[in-house]
Every structure is written in structure tokens, then in C-alpha cells.
Structures
1.
Amino acid sequence: MDAKVLLDTTEMLLLLIWRHLEYYSQPRYMNAMPVKVSVSNAMRLLATAEPEAFRAEMGAKLAPALERLASLDLDYESFGQDWQGNQGYIEIMCRRLRDSAGLHDETVQGRAGG
């Protein structure tokens, strides 16, 4: 498979994961009637349906993948003329995912306490 296709697919998946994380971690959506069934269905694999616990669990699951994405070495030879745009987008989405999962909060607390 072409590296550019994999990169574009990764971008789409990052956006999808971020949107779902944002949606399902909002307390107001947890009890909405039409959504309640789908939220319950989506959350059935998680230990808890509490938004903060959901966010923390997702952070723990996402952290290794986000670290690997941060170490990607994109260049013109491998990805063509759009490589800088792809790299920027992936960095932005990783930052958004870290923010949504509370991973930046832990980093800040770790620096303040250490």
C-alpha cells in the first residue's frame, strides 16, 4: 500500500477518534434519550460510563499510539510535496487528542510536582 494512502487514512482516523472522544466524554450526552442506547452500546467495553473515567481510560489507551505518531519521520522523498501539511495535521490532531484525554493535564501536574 502506498505510504501517502496510509498517511491520509491515519489523518482520517485521528479525526474520527478525536470527535468520538469529545462526544462521549461530555456528561450532557450520557443521559440523552436517543443517544443513551448508542452511548451504552459504545461504552459496553469500558470499565465505567463516567465521563472523566472514560477520558482517563482513553488517555491510557491512546498514549502509546500518540507517542509513536510523534516519532514519525515524514519527508519529501517518502510522502511528496504535501508532507509538511500532513505532518502539521497529525501534530494538531495528536495535541487535540492529548487535550481531550487529559494527557496534557498529567504532563503539567508531573512537571509541577517533580
2.
Amino acid sequence: MKIRLLFRSKIVATIALVITLLSFLYLLISASNRPSYTHKLLVRPLYSINRNDVIIGCKIYVFFITPNQGSIFMGSDSTDRTGTVSLIFKLKDFLKRYIEYFKKKNHITNIRVYVLAIYNNRIGFTSYNLLKINNAGEISLVNEKSLKIVLRKTPFKFITKSSEIPIKQSYHSEWTKICLSFVKSISKKAKVSIYISKNSVLENEILSMFLGWNTYTVGYIENDIFLKNDLNLTREDKILSLEVKAKITWEEWKYPVGFYEHRIFISEIDPSTFDFSSNEITNEMFNENWRQTKITNSYLIESNNTIGVMVPKTFIDKIVSKTFSPIPIPENQLGINISIKKGVGVKILLPDDINERYMIRVKTLYFKS
């Protein structure tokens, strides 16, 4: 009897062990299939891309540039004895809000991670996409990123021991119409067409000015377009402007290391608002910059081409009224370049007496204080 009970006990124990192991295996499989909401970033600043420097005490700042909130400061740290910084971001709630924001839209704007490095009289920056977006509009997180940032010399000396965080001390964002091409003829009508495929990608640059020292393109914001059908628009007129609504964002950041940064970018482009206007553009700065690009009767803007967009003067006036730090460059205009990465084409057919057309690249200027 005792032998039978002992035998039964061993069977029960074995079954319990098998159930425990199967449960553990199930949990492991479930965990492996569950999406990760953690992003790990490793940064190494260098004096030159060909050198293997160990720079201790270099300050690293990380921002997420988002469509709905502009730039968000995510964290900072200083390089350790290995010359690197490791930062981990838990983004579950952050990504849920982001996905909800684009739930009913026909486009998705990627989140750009902007990394700034500051050390003594040197500064460096880089950026990358936080998300992977496929042709079906499905989003996945880039879980790990390793970066090298080359530090360039500046005329300034920075304080890098401060533990304070940067502050967004001024901000302005608004939806406005931007012009992608402008045609003006005297007698005959010109013809402009735009084609947008169901899956298209546009990119626009992020411009930053540090201390009024220089204006840099610190990254590009990816706008993925998802339409039910391909879009074709065509119009003929003596005056034609191809326009689209875009959300332009300007920010002024104050850093504890001793400088200011002005940052401007297009947060979103609404592809459902592509349209033509027959209104004359009277903006003086626009007319000065939008000159003929070629002596030809037709021009095709397609993948890997860049379109320069002048920021509306009314927007710049609002920036000037809000800025805290001085803007030393005596200009009153600013432009942002939009790159066609995939699926968009603009065709311009012109009569012989054409006056103006689209601008290939805009001159990166700033505005009067």
C-alpha cells in the first residue's frame, strides 16, 4: 500500500512539474511575441569619424520631435570613463497616444530622435527615426540604436557640468498653406499636374540655429502618406500655385550649458489638402527667391528631387514677437526643404513667356529681431 501511494505521489509530482514547465514555456513564447515598448540608445562622441576617442564628461541631450507636441526633451547624461552614454526610454503610454493621434488620418508622421552633444567649445548632433512604418501603415518601434557623433569646433565655450535640463521657453505652431510650385505667364495658360500614389513618402528638414552662429539641417522628418486610391490633379491657368496645408512649428530652447537654440520644422503635411490656387503671390521675399530654375518648357519633379518652401511672412512675424534670445543675422525670411522620397510627381508645362516656376532649394536664412 505504501509503495502504491509513493508511486502515485511521484506521478503527481511529475505531472505538476510538467505543467509548471509548460506554463513557463507559454509565458516565454507570449513574452517573445509581445511588442517591446523600450528604446535603448548608446551614444559615443568623437573628434573625428576616423578616430577612436574617449571623451569623458561630454553632455548628451535627447529630444523626440513629434507631430502633435513638437520637440519633447526626453533626458540627458554625460559620457563616462568609456566615452559613451547609455539611455533607456520606456515608451508604452507615449506610443499609445501617438497611435491614437493618427488613428483616423490618411498619413503618419514619424517621430524623429534628435541627439545633441556638447563638450567645451565643441558641438555635435545627429538624428534618426524612432519608428518603422510599412506600406500598410503598421508601426513598430526601433528598440536599439548605437550612434557616433562628430564634435565640431565653435567660437564659444560651454559649461558642461550643469545638471539642469534645457527649457522650451518659446513656441509657436500653426497649420498654414505652403506653396510647392508657382507659375506666372503673360498670355498663354500654363499647366501643372501632381500625382500622388497610394503609398508615398515626403521628408522635410529640421533646421536649427545655435547662438546665432550658424543654421544647420539636423535631421529630416518622414511623412508617410496612405490613400485609398492614387491621386491625380491637373489645372491650367496664367497664374498657378500648387499648395498644401502643413503644420509649421518653431521653438526656442534655452540650455543650461550657456546657449540658445532656435528650431523650425514642418510637423505634419495633410495630403488631402493638395490643391491649386490662381492667386498672385505678392510676398516680396517670395518673389525675390522664386526665380526661374531652367529655360525649358516642361519640368518634372519626382523621387529624390527637393522643393524649397518659403515660410509665410505672417508666421515669421509671430516668431519675432515671441523670441527671448537675440537673433543676430539681419534677414527676415526662412525656408524649409521638402524632399520627395517615393510616390509623388509634379509636372509643369510652360508657355514660352513664363516668368516664374518652382524653387529647387531654398536658401536657409533667418529673420530680423
3.
Amino acid sequence: RRLVKRMSEGEKEASEGDQSSEEETLEGHKTAISCEMCCKAEAKYTCPGCSKKTCSLACVKEHKAKFSCSGRRDVAEYKNLTEFTDSDMRNDFQFLMDAERIADNAHREGYKEKLYVKSKVPQHLQQISRYARWRGVNMIVMPSSFKRRKDNTSSYCHQRKLMLWKLELVFDLDEPLTITEDRVPDSTSLRDILSKYFDVSCTHEASVRCKLQAFQSMDLDNLSLFIKVEPSKANDVKYYELSIDSTIAEALKHKIVIEHPTILVMLKSKAADMPTIPHPVSMQEVFEDTIAASTGGAASLVETIPYVKKRAHPYSESARHFDKRGRGGNQSWRGR
């Protein structure tokens, strides 16, 4: 019985071998694919980019020039899930590995060439910017080579707990007149700042008094004050309208200031055509409006950007935390 079983298995394998050989002979007689460019010779190469069949180097160059083909596979080409094969998975995996390798090499080269450097903003400017942020103003510090950075004299008074701003007043004249005020406390009202320029006994130089004659005959209530919305495009400038009875702190709250504030002073008769927007109620709204304006109203990008929470004021006792021994939780204890 064992012998008969082995003989039957051998005959079965022989019949299967004959059948496979017949299939191979049938496949061997398939029609050869001709070149898609010259249509004369048999195609030998397949372009990874457009899958064109070519026969020689001349046909390869001809198809690249004719179809503007790069000859490279499109790694971002869409492929249906039903057509997705193991080869496509290997290609995607190789693409991710190449991207990781390039990012790692760039990171290493950056440290080698010392491209990653610490912030060059001086410590006192970082503190002033932080104090301004605690008072609701996002102060942006420019690079040291900029004139606006060099001319900025803003500071913070620790005793009075006030920001001392460098204030720039731009009067809307045929030739705009710019007057600067140094170390102005943010508790000062805009009316008090402007009143001395509208006094006939103004102590400024003769050229300034001559240019301000058109304003000195006007009442302060007939003026309109504006501050530029930052950052803004050169062809789409917007302004916030300020109340003349508000203080500098109230006027700058929830706004972005580049180095120091600049206030535009003009007559109400000319202020009707000024492009203004409502005042923001929080810094989160300022960031969202800024991103929406720069992205053309893409709300999805706005939602993905986190908002940095406001840090506690260093002089606020309610923000300090104490442990059982009465030590401040926000203090750094060194040397233990």
C-alpha cells in the first residue's frame, strides 16, 4: 500500500510539472511591448515618473523633453487603498526614513556651524517686555541694528510699578510733524500730554510752534487719536481709535507695540476715512485676528495655535504660594 501511494504521488507531481511547463511556454509567447516613442523597437525601460515605455537613451531623453517629465517617482502621488501594495508601503517607509535622515543631518550641521545661538536681547529689555506683558501690552523687541530699537528709552519703575514709555506723537499736517516724549508714565492721560502742545505759551522751539498753529486754535475735543494695528501689511493698514480721556495704559491694553507706541493725531474732519477696527478684549483675540489676516481668514490655523497663559505678577501677593514652613513656592532655593 505504501508503494502504491508513493507511485500515485509521483504521477501527480509529474502531471503538475507538465502543466506548469505548458503555462510557461504559453507565457513565453506573449507579444512584446513596443517603444511608445519610436514605435519600432521593443521597450526595455519604464519611466518611474510617468510609466512611459522606452527602448533606448535617445527615446528616454525625447520623452522627458516632450512630456516635461523629470524621470523621478512622485512620492506624494495619491493611490487608492485597493491598489496599495507592499511595494508602495516600502516606498513610503523609505521616504519617511529619508526625511528623518535629512532632518537629523541638518540638526547636526546646525550645532556644528553654531547656527543655534542664545537670544541676543539684553536682560533689561527682556524684563521691560515682561513687565509690559503683565500690564496687558505685547511689546515686540526689534534687532539691535534697527533705529527704533536704538532710540527706545522705555523702562519700568519698580517703586511706582509703572511703565515709563517713550511716546511718539505724529501730527497729521501737510508735512507730518513727529514729537517724542521720553519716560512718560502710563498713568498719564492723553489729554494731559496733548494739552501742553495746544497752549499758546508753548515752550518748544519756533519751528514746532509754527507748525502747530493749525492745531493750537482747535479744541482738544475736536481731535481724533489713532494707533496702528501691529503687525499689518503695507497695503492694508488698520488703526485703533483712542479716546483722548484715556490713559496710556488703557490705550495700549490688549495691543501689540513694536518697541514703543506711536500715536497719530489728526482733526476729526479728516478722520472719517480712517480704516479702523474695534478694540480687542483680550490678547487671544489680538493673536487670532493677526493670524487670520496673515492667512487670509484661515480659521483652522488660528485654532491650532495655543495661547500662552499670563504669568503671575511678581509684586502680586495673591499670586504667591507658600508651603507649611512659610516659604514662597515660586522662589528658587539654591545651595541645598
4.
Amino acid sequence: MGNKNWFWDKLYLKEFQYSAYLKKKIHKLSVEVLEERKEVEKTNKSTTNEKNLELIILWIISKSNL
């Protein structure tokens, strides 16, 4: 039984670390997108970071069954 609990604890820790990583990545990309949008506002084009952020958010939504 100890091994089973260890497995679930390890899995939970990995999920938590991955979740924290995604939050940091989303925040970083959000800041970069805001800065880039200021620069390219007149061209009306999406930036690479903006597209990446949209893809990450869509992926999270698909995984959370919303």
C-alpha cells in the first residue's frame, strides 16, 4: 500500500508542478502579448506569442472538459 500512495503522491506533485508551470507560461506570454500588441496595434496582425497563448488556452479548455 505504501507504494500505491507514493505513486499517487508523485502523480499529484507532477500535476501541481505542471499546473504551476502552465500558469507561469500563460502569465509570461500574456505580458509579452500585451507589449507586442502595443507595438503592432496599427498593423492589425496577430503576433506569434498571441497565437501561442491562444493555443495553450484552447488546449487547457479541451483538457478540462468545459
